[in-house]
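Reproducibility note. Readers wishing to regenerate the assembly model reported in the main text can use the exact inputs given here. Chain order matters: entities are listed in the order in which they were concatenated for prediction.
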Amino acid sequence: EPEVTQTPSHQVTQMGQEVILRCVPISNHLYFYWYRQILGQKVEFLVSFYNNEISEKSEIFDDQFSVERPDGSNFTLKIRSTKLEDSAMYFCASSLYRDRDNGYTFGSGTRLTVV
Amino acid sequence: QKEVEQNSGPLSVPEGAIASLNCTYSDRGSQSFFWYRQYSGKSPELIMFIYSNGDKEDGRFTAQLNKASQYVSLLIRDSQPSDSATYLCAVKKLTFGTGTRLTIIP
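Running the prediction on these inputs yields the following structure tokens for the assembly.
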């Protein structure tokens, strides 16, 4: 069964450093998403991406965040200057359609710890 | 006002019984609704999606949607210990509830 792959599974970084979280969506999917989940809290939408541009973003997704699809397979989330409160599980997801979909798949996540 | 609300639980159900999970939402124009299961430390896994009023069944799972009352529910029949997890309700793909922790008691 096709999978969304995320690397690394764990990332520890010092406050103020830049991090790049990587995702390989399912190959025929067209819509890509990033979510985060702070420990013990709900899943929060960050950004959706379609046709090489951001289609929606949340208030969380401020100027410190950026996304990119540098080639035909990878989808990355960059945090420019990490803060302690960025510590969370970051999930990538992909889907074939925007809303009406039965193939919406999350990756296994990257646990980011900012120290 | 929270956009998607769920009872955080924990909800304890005996093995073999029906587990009933509920979710209400505030955006009356919402069209698509999803139920996910999340085991501790794992990513959410899609169980069901529903767009139309009424019931949708898939194996032991039934999703129920009532747009007039703005609620969506998930029934799990013949509950198994492996169903013990946190169940997340989501509206479209953007807004998740806090989840209901379900424990199936053998």
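We highlight two features of this model. The two ends of chain B are 37 Å apart (CA to CA). The CA atoms of residues 26 and 66 of chain B lie 13 Å apart.
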